[in-house]
Design goal:
Layout lengths: L15 H8 L19 E6 L10 E9 L9 E5 L14 H9 L2 E5 L15 H4 L4 H18 L8 E6 L1 H12 L6 E5 L6 E3 L2 H11 L3 H17 L3 H10 L13 H20 L12 H8 L7 H15 L9 H8 L12 H12 E3 L6 H4 L5 H12 L6 H13 L11 E6 L19 E4 L17 H19 L5
Helix pairs in contact: 1-9, 4-5, 6-9, 7-11, 13-16
Length: 491
Amino acid sequence: MRFAVLLLVVCFIYDAAARRRFSRHHGLGSPKLSKVHDLPKDQWFEQHLDHSNPTDGRMWKQRYFMNGEYYKEGGPIFLLIGGEGPAEAKWLVEGEMIDNAKKYGAMCFQLEHRYYGKSHPTQDMSVKNLVYLSSEQALADLAYFIEAMPKMYNMTQDSKWIVFGGSYPGSLAAWMRYKYPHLVHGAVSASGPLLAQADFQQYFIVVEESLRTHSQGCIDAIGAAMKQVHIMLRHRIGQQSLAKLFKFCDPIDSGKTTTKDIANLYESLADTFADVVQYNKDNRNSSVYTIDDICNVLVDEKRGVPVNRFAEVSNMLLKKNKEECLDYKYSKMIDEMRNVTWPVNEAPGGRQWTYQTCTEFGFFQTSTARPNLFSETFPVDFYLTMCQDIFGPRFLHTVEIGVERTNTIYGALDLPNVISNVVFVHGSIDPWHALGVTKSNNPEAPAIFINGTAHCANMYPPSKKDLPQLTQARKQISNYIGQWLEKKVYW
């Protein structure tokens, strides 16, 4: 789920620091498929621009995918909710939802979130147009889609809908069941942060705890490396050495490098670990490093002093991401995030997601709870200023109001007490579980907390390397779906 820059009208390479930051927000990667499939084609649904204003007749076309291969007449309808990035048709051929579709004879859809991927409701992403980007509008999109699909595909109007979502869409799945219980019969909410919070200090606390599952030595090495970084940044020779070690795109220059640049640099260095931890050992269709991979380097004293080992890990990730250098310049990131035009290709939704964090959720992953490990240079004020610098002066104050409003509307962590037919799923390694439901006293809205797994792990296609507790969790989720489908009433 974090900030990234969008590739806009003319294709250019966007800021690498922003891309890494956004990767921690972007919920689902591309699933690793077991075979080659003919993927579902893009389809389009005409949608209202402003669901809150019936006098606004503007319409736009929203992308969706459909797979009816496993549908049995009278069967349920499964809907995968799109999130803060392009929808991907691969999720309509393999993964947790498809496995359950085979079992229960379900029709399957995936609806792309407005303003992401190819779903462009407005001419551009200017602030005046982003006002139509919100979780409430997204939920209404889902509601109108659910109302329309049975007619379009000749299914019975009383078909039972089960929604699935991971990360931000995991929150949307639970909120959909809460706000539209007459339309949604059940919801699988994976890794969903239900508590909006501006200062998300717990994120890096969990990162540290997750790294400690390898060894205390890994934590000690990071701490020692960061101390060396602090010292080296204080004098010119050290700055030059750091720039070479970490392959900075721009040298540290006392006359040009700002306080915001240094904060962004430290945040980029912290991202080195956050990205690995959040997606540790999931089943994405890309080669990713694990906690063991990076910690094995960090504790290996034969590789040099701690800062050298830290740099080696950082450069490993640069290479994996096909980046030539580590870009930490704050002004460059802000300039690119201000670009309001749509991309030619499907790019990560950095500007859009940043707008949502600045107006609805916060979710700012600050360093101040672990200053000895990740520095204290990117507190919550760093992100509030970022909102202002990207969108304008009034956005310095929108976060607090938006967070309070979101928690008031959706119930935050009290939601399990007033809801049914929802299962909340989290992994202990995933830092986002700190804002989610990991325990529930309501048997109608149970929580499954999977020890040793990361972000949205249950949603991916199964692998022989899966932990037994992950396999068991998938079975539990499937059983809950079966129980919901047997119920004749919605609530």
